Structures are given as structure tokens and as C-alpha cells.
Amino acid sequence: MDPNDETGFTNQVIDPHAIPDHAEVPFNPMASKFRRYVLQSTALQFLPLLGGAAVLWLLPVVQDGPALIAGGAGLLGLASLIAVYRWLDAGYRGWVLREHDLIARAGVIWRGITALPIARIQHVETTHGPLERFHGLARLKLYTAGGMTADLVLIGLPRTTADELREYLVEQIRKRDSEAAQSGHE
Asked: Phi and psi dihedrals of 84, rounded to 5?
């Protein structure tokens, strides 16, 4: 640190070999019920399409029954592939809260890791739909300044964990804003 610099700001060079490996971070898994929720939500999304195919097959006007059966089997196969993909993704997802950031990982084929600094968070909310409530799950949505949509969404958290994380992050935001207001008045 420069002794003549009154701000205390430094910008030291960091050795690339000294950077911690993100793979060594101990990620918390999503809720144990999350995989069951994923399979049920996938089935509910495809149910109207399969029901529509069944209704078409029963109509006397439709003469091509084998084509409808093949189409229904195709839809069922597609739904199965999507369900397997989402099930695998649910098993890989994880999160970790550290002193200065929240890290989330997701993806099966295209894997991603997102680190959101707590200092950048402006708003935090939890949401849960009917199926998530049934399974005791919730989503934690984190917003930074200037965004209309959430910058990070953790899905598949136990509802109590999501609420605890929200309250912790809101408290960190309050502390940061209070400190900023006090330093602005000095």
C-alpha cells in the first residue's frame, strides 16, 4: 500500500497460480425433494399435449390412428428425455454462501458457475409455486442495480433455507447501506 495514498486503495498483481480453484468450494446440494419436484413439473408440462393427442385419437373424424399413436409416442419420448436431462441437472446444481459472495452452479452439458458479490445485491426475494409449496421448496431471486430480471436464481432450496438466506442477505444490504449513509454524512 502506498503510504501517501489516503484512500487505502491498492491494486496488487495476483499470481494466476495463487487463485483458488472454484472446484474446491464445498457446494451445498439442493433440497432432497428437488429431483422429485423436477420430474413432476416436467410431467405436468407435457400432460396437456399428451391429453390432446389422446382426445384426437378418440375422435371419429380422425382416420389416421397409427400416426397419432406414433406422435403420442414421440411426445412421450421427448418428455422422457427432458425429464432425464432436468433430473441430471437437479443433481449437479449447488450453491455456497461465502463472506463476500454467493456462488451457484448448474448445467449438465453446458455447465456454469455464477458468483454474485453480496455488495452488488440490491433486492432479494423468495417465491414458490403450488408444486414447490407441496414439496417444501422455494426459489431465491437476487437482483443487482439496473436489472429488471433476477441476476441469480437458486431453485430447489428448502423453503426454510431460502427464507434464512433472504433474511441474511437483506441484513447485509441494510448494513452496507447504513455504512454508506454514515460515511456520506461525515
From this structure: -65, -45
The pTM of this model reads 0.77
Q: Which residues, 6 or more positions from 13, have their beta carbon under 8 angstroms from its beta carbon?
A: none
Q: What is the largest CA-CA distance in the chain?
A: 89
Q: Rounded to whole angstroms, how far apart are CA atoms 132 and 156?
A: 8
- The span from the CA of 133 to the CA of 129, in Å, is 6
Rounded CA gap, 75 and 72, in Å?
5
**Continuous segment of H or E residues that includes residue 12:** none
Q: What CATH code would you report for 94-180?
A: 2.30.29
Domain extents in the chain: 34-89, 94-180
> Is-contact 23 16, C-beta < 8 A?
no
Task: Kindly report the number of other CB atoms within 10 A of residue 86's CB atom.
Answer: 17
Cβ contacts of residue 41 below 8 Å, gap of 6+? 131
Q: What mean pLDDT, rounded, does the chain reach?
A: 86
Higher confidence at residue 157 or residue 149?
157
